[in-house]
Amino acid sequence: MSPNTASSIDPEEVARFAAIAEAWWDPNGKFRPLHKFNPTRLAYVRDQLAAHFARDVAGRQPFAGLRLIDIGCGGGLVAEPMARMGFAVTGVDATERNIGVASAHAAKQELAIDYRFAAAEDLVAAGERFDVVLALEVIEHVADPAAFLVSIGQLVKPGGAVVVATLNRTAKAFGLAIVGAEYLLGWLPRGTHTWSKFLKPSEVAGGLRRAGLVLHDLSGVSYNPVADKWSLGSDTSVNYLMTAVKA
Q1: Contact predicate 72/137, CB 8 Å
Q2: Residues 6+ apart with CB under 8 A from 29
Q3: Which of the residue ranges 25-39, 162-176, 207-221 would you say has the lowest mean pLDDT?
């Protein structure tokens, strides 16, 4: 399946990530900041979904029987842990090289993940539905965020949950996520983010509501340079995560 041409995909963003696709699983490479950030967002996703579906995370595969889609899955940094927790995982990405990297890595780990070179709209058109929809660090790279959120609402089953993670459109986010991370510290390749495409929490929440979802949680994620670690909290001025459910 190839992404349909009338989608929310931004070709320039696809090309940018295709150029660095082979680096996904290198913890000291171009995606090092994402590797550092990943445990915090995984814990958030796990705990929010465990509460919503009344699952005990102490179990070996607490989410067995639930179907999850990871939109903009990249190299599989989230899809693989989700599969290990018992979800039947589908990962989609608009960058074909990312899907190749993700598929090869999952095969080495003996994980059965359904990776597809596709857009969210393709799965909507095919009538697919999921218990969980993840859109982590992807909405700031799409061409039409409003249409993307509509697709998310169509992909999640009634009673299901959506988790979105992105960057806030604030001066602080510009200073830290772009000037600091990309230009001063070199944590990310220059041009990874476009500040004008960052979204305020109210904008994401509004789009989710229009898509038929109800907001259940909004949490900020902050970086402590002294401890070199990320943590969840109430500060949404740079990074934030949002959980919504479909009645």
Answers
A1: yes
A2: 23
A3: 25-39
